[in-house]
Each structure stands twice: as structure tokens, then as C-alpha cells.
Amino acid sequence: MSLSGERRFPEPAVRFCSSAHSGRRGRGRQCAVRVAPSFVSNLSTPVGTGWQEPGADFSRRLRRHQNDGMPMPVDDSLVRYPDGTTRCRAAVLAVTVSDDRTFVLTDQTPFHPIDPRWPDQGADRGALAFGDNSAPVIDCVIGATDGEQFFVGDAVPVRRGEPGWSFVVVHVLPAGPSPREGDSVELAVDGEYRLQLSAGHTGCHVASLALNASLADRWRKTVQSDGLGRPNFDQLAIVSSTIIPDGAIDTYRIGKSLRKKGFDVDGLGLALPDITAAANAVLAGWVGSAATVEVQVSGPRLTDLREWVCALPEGTVRIPCGGTHVHSLSEVEAIRIGLTFNEAAGELVMTTSVDRPDALAAGARLLPAGQSR
Ligand SMILES: [Zn+2]
Question: Are residues 143 and 201 both part of a single domain?
Fold first, then answer.
């Protein structure tokens, strides 16, 4: 589920898309203090983009240059990705240069950034074009500024909604030519990679609902329900979620606290094949229904509430989510899950895979002649 405001944040207080943000818009567009802000970044998020150095952690204070004294943004970034947009023109608001990276803030963006607090869906890939130049966007993360300080990634010290702070999408470019503040630039996301992540993320959500359905008869007490009225195993047990191209990996903790809430673990390992088959049958029915999928937004900015809304045959389900999604289950051919249970560790892992017609065609083109899938 993603950048975001996930269904899955164990503490609602840190949920990205919370209604607590709804009141901050009255702040107006007053200028921030005209000083070069101090800068701290930490991009050591667990989901890489392919270009990101693994484990890169370079928290430090940096100068801002190429800066003609433009103030840091006082509003949260306008984000275009919730409706599937992959490119747009934008105005550069701030450029911050480190030894080997350039951090670019724009007034709007089609790039989905990774959220270090719940890094399920990774950053979009793509390019930023300015003048006759084009630079790859090697990472994209959430940052925050109070006008005097600028923090990136998990170095951000405040929560969304903190008075006086703006949350922004930070485009990370490699060292080299970069745009200047005030420039008009073209931001273009890698559409195929976005589609793979969108399919994986939608698959992740429907798979979690199918898992809830197939585990429903193991609950001995009443607990919170999902959008279809079933005990919400997913929400109660989720530890981590990782969206991968055309799939997802979700890890659940099955320990004392879940047993206390009424979840029956007896014979779970032996029952896994039946549970998996039941979930996959549910998923086949849902995919066959060609249910529509939509990301509904409460506003156009990064911190506004966004919800994944899917019109399944049993009912319409809404899940807070900051990620990207396909528009209909008709865009996929199949969604399947696999389950593994490590009883000693109390850990259940669900692997979701999504088949798309386009992906199969693209994959076949990559295989050597004479080889079939
Ligand atoms: Zn989500």
C-alpha cells in the first residue's frame, strides 16, 4: 500500500494520509524566510529504485547553491500520480546540491516518491528535462522544510501536519547539469515500470482481502472488519509490505498478541494449501468481474487523504493508500498468492503475483529465439 497513508500503519498517528492534515491549508502562501536553509538528507530507505546506492546514508548539512534567494516552498507539493499521470511540465522551486547529488523541488510532479515510514511502493523512475538537457531521476523521496531547514527521507524530524512545515516531493538527480530555480522543466516517469508497480500494488490490496476471506473461519473472537465485513487479519498482523513489479511480498506476525485477539493458529501450517487455494479462487472471481479501481483524493497535495477504491462483486472497498494503481482488474489476467509459514518465528509470508497480458508479451520478446515461457 504506499507512500503513504496506508491501511497498514500500526500507529494511526504516523499514518501519512490522515484526516489530521485537513486543517492545515489555511496557512496561506506567505513567504518563507529568505535564508539558505540547512539541509539534512538520508536516503537509506529499504526499497531502492535501481539507481540508488544500497544503504546510502549521507546525513549532513549542505549549502544550497544556484539559489537566487528563492524561498523554500511553503505549500505541500502538488502530486499528479494518483490519477495515473506520468508526465507534466513544472516550475522549479528549489535546487539543493550536494557533492554527488542534486535535489530538485518543483511546484507539481507526476513522480511517486518513496515514503521512508512505510516504504512499500518504491520511487518512480524517469527523467527531468530542462533546456536542451535531460537528467535521470535516480531517486524520489519525501522531504520537509520549515523554510530554514530542509530534510529528506527518514531524516525528516516532524510529522505531516506539523504547523509551519511543508512536505515536498524531492527529485534526486546525479551530479552534473541541473536546472535552475524558476526554470520550466518537463518531468517524465518511466511508464512501463509505473504500470508494473501499479499492477503489483492493486494486486497487493485485493490479495490482502482474499487472504482475510480465506482465514475468516479461524477467528474465535470479534475483531475489526475489512471493507467486505471479514475479520481484518491483514491489518491486525501486517509487519511489512513490499510492492515489486507485478507483485508484492507481505509479511505477517502471528504471535501471542494475535492469538490473544482470537486468531486460531492450530494446524495453520498443514492448512496452508487449502487456505491458498481458497484465496486464489476468490481472486480468480474478482479478476473475472473486471472490477473498477480508482484512487480517490481529498485534495491535490502530497499530504491530502487518498483512498484506493475497488468495486468488488461483494461490495466497494476503500483502503487509505498513497500509492499508484491500475484502473480496473480487467487490466490483469490473473492475481495469485503463495503462502509460507515459519511457525518457530511466528511469521506468515504472502507472495502475490500479477499476470498482465502486456507483461507476458514484453517478457516473451526478451527471451532468446526458440525459447518459450
Ligand atoms: Zn496501498
Answer: no
Grade residue 38 by pLDDT with cuts at 50, 70 and 90.
low
Residue 247 CA to ligand 1 centre (angstroms): 12
Residue 70 has pLDDT above 60, yes or no: yes
205 Cα to the center of ligand 1, angstroms? 6
Q: How far is the CA of 7 from the centre of ligand 1 (A)?
A: 7
Residues 183 and 304 grouped into a single domain: no
Q: Same domain, yes or no, for 99 and 235?
A: no
- Model pLDDT, residue 362: 57
- Please answer whether residues 64 and 36 qualify as being in contact, where contact means their C-beta atoms are separated by less than 8 angstroms: yes
H-run or E-run covering 192: helix 191-214
Average pLDDT over residues 38-61: 41
| pLDDT number for residue 116 | 87
Listed residues 165, 189, 213: the one ending a domain: 189
Q: How far is the CA of 1 from the centre of ligand 1 (A)?
A: 2
Distance 216 CA to ligand 1 centre (A): 21
% the chain with pLDDT above 70: 77
Q: Which domain holds residue 257?
A: 193-366
N-to-C CA span, the chain: 30
The DSSP annotation for 116-168 comes to TTS--S----EEEEETTEEEEE-EEEEEEE-SSEEEEETT--S-TT-TT-EEE
Residues 138 and 254 reside in one and the same domain: no
